[in-house]
Amino acid sequence: MTGPSIPVGVATGVGSWPGTDPREAAAIVVGELPALPHLVELPDRGVGADMIGRAAALLVDLPLDTSTTAYRLAQRPGAVTRRARDLLRRDLDALEEAWEVAGRRGTDQPVKVQSVGPLTLAAQVELSGGHRVLTDAGALRDLAESLAEGLSVHVAEVARRLGSPVVVQLDEPGLPAVLAGSLAGVSILQTPRAMPEPEALAFLSSVIDRLESPVLVHSCAAGLPLALLRRSGAAMIGLDMSELTVADLDGVGELLEDGIALALGLVPTLGPEPAPGWRELAQPAVTLVDRLGFPRSVLATQVTVTPRCGLAGASPEWARVALRRAAELTRAFADGAEFD
After folding, report:
1. What range(s) does the Cobalamin-independent methionine synthase MetE C-terminal/archaeal domain occupy (predicted)?
2. Do the Cβ atoms of 326 and 304 come closer than 8 Å?
3. What pTM, to 2 d.p., does this model score?
4. Where are the domains of the chain?
5. pLDDT tens across 277-320, in order?
6. CB–CB of 116/171 below 8 Å?
7. Cα dist. 148→59, 177, 208, 216 in Å?
8. Where are the alpha helices (DSSP H) in 37-78?
């Protein structure tokens, strides 16, 4: 991995955003997230716009179609792949326009792009017979290679369009289920096996190692294999604070000790009324570093703040508030505010 580091002590988004207007979304994200804006995903647009559908626009020589149950590998590019590529092109056009308006072209200002990770992708995409790609080691290897190649091309295009460095986020919400073997199969006798951690690590690292950008591996799922992620080559690990348990404390501490940054989901996806203040939102992170025995200054030097997953399901008003609350938290952490 080469290139710039991932900014810490800043706010960023997870990826998804409510609505269907890419220009409006890009303008808001570039305006509200001055240190690390991101290329948004707008799943409300339907097929080709969700996390797995976005992969249809990135994969090289592995087109996707849809079945009655899921996305499926296809023999040749069809309507689904063409739609996914068109939506991605529109999103890039919108981000490039917002970037120009904000005067950020040719600066050192990084931007983040997101993609589903290889294991979650293989768990959600079907082979022609209806089995998950995950059940075929050769197909999984081909999928990981195709994703890595497509992401490299995507990153290069974003960097060229914006004249800025790019950070890559790999979303792996399905990783715990892949390791546990808890995914359903086409029949009760054909459920996917539990994947050993060394095998899962090899597939994830194969994608990270191909990218010439710093990588954030993100998941809002409970029970993340933090030791595996620590060895993956990722520069930052994204976690939802509401999913962490006492059993995760040692793993989080080892990440910080190894110099791996954290992206902590601290802001609720669906806005409560009244909206919580920064002290209330900061408390889980403060408690975490206190319990681990780290100085609170680590919240400014090794932590990036995000909303929790699923912001696409929020109202447009709360989505913008969530980004502002995340930015408020980073300022409080940087200022060494009193939280007690």
Report:
1. 12-330
2. no
3. 0.95
4. 22-244
5. 888 999 999 999 999 999 999 999 999 999 999 999 999 999 99
6. yes
7. 8, 22, 8, 14
8. 51-58
